[in-house]
TrEMBL record:
It comes from the Bacteria. One of its GO terms (cellular component) is DNA-directed RNA polymerase complex. Residues 1-22 are annotated as: Disordered. It comes from Cryobacterium algoritolerans. The keyword Transcription applies. This is DNA-directed RNA polymerase subunit beta. Keywords: DNA-directed RNA polymerase, Transcription.
Length: 209
């Protein structure tokens, strides 16, 4: 991987990108797909609330290392790739709930799409509401309609992307470095939204490997 993570992991927005894999891509890919399918099948077939709670909070206790090692190098439009992105989005939210809530709220104020409705965060959206949304989406991966959970995550990413762009526009003159960082972050969230949306469509067509 490109970075070494140690518990507790601090994962900044600037690292919201793909990781490098190991020396045997075929083996890594096989393990990623096998573990993702096995985990999802086991939990969805028997959604024990205690098990689901542990999975939702897994990175809070163990950091993101194990999840990253399993799934970060998977292709974006795959089951392990989708799971990695859901966990990563939740991690980013929990590391900066105040900043994320501000960007999300700005996005809801300027978007003309129905993404805030699809994402389903309580309004107005503060730090508590944005953390609750992250947990609801991840929980839905294991206990609800998988494609709907992916759609909610994609909508969340689009709202954040729009919020980042709007704040970047406001900061362009007074804080050009911040504007550049926010523009880069907006692109990453927009890309992730597209990837998650594609995964939702593939799941519905029973083609998400």
């Amino acid at each position: 991987m490109a970075d070494d993570f140690h518990k507790p992991t601090q994962f900044s927005g600037s690292k919201f990108e793909s990781f490098q894999g190991g020396d045997d891509p075929a083996s890594i890919s096989r393990v990623a797909h096998e573990t993702a399918h096995a985990l999802l099948a086991r939990v969805r077939n028997d959604p024990d609330p205690a098990v689901v709670d542990r999975l939702v909070a897994y990175t809070d206790e163990h950091g993101v290392d194990a999840v990253a090692e399993l799934w970060a190098s998977a292709t974006p439009r795959s089951l392990p790739g989708a799971l990695w992105r859901i966990y990563l989005v939740r991690l980013l939210i929990r590391q900066d709930p105040h900043g994320t809530a501000l960007l999300y709220q700005r996005g809801t104020e300027v978007t003309v799409a129905i993404d805030p409705v699809i994402a389903g965060a309580a309004a107005p959206t503060g730090p508590g509401e944005i953390i609750a949304l992250a947990d609801q989406i991840l929980r839905g991966i294991f206990t609800g309609d998988f494609a709907v959970a992916l759609d909610r995550a994609a909508a969340f990413c689009r709202v954040i992307s729009i919020g980042c762009t709007s704040v970047a526009d406001d900061s362009e003159t007074s804080e050009p470095l911040r504007a550049t960082e926010l523009t880069t972050r907006a692109l990453r969230f927009s890309t992730t939204a597209q990837e998650l949306g594609s995964c939702a469509r593939l799941w519905r067509s029973e083609s998400l490997d």
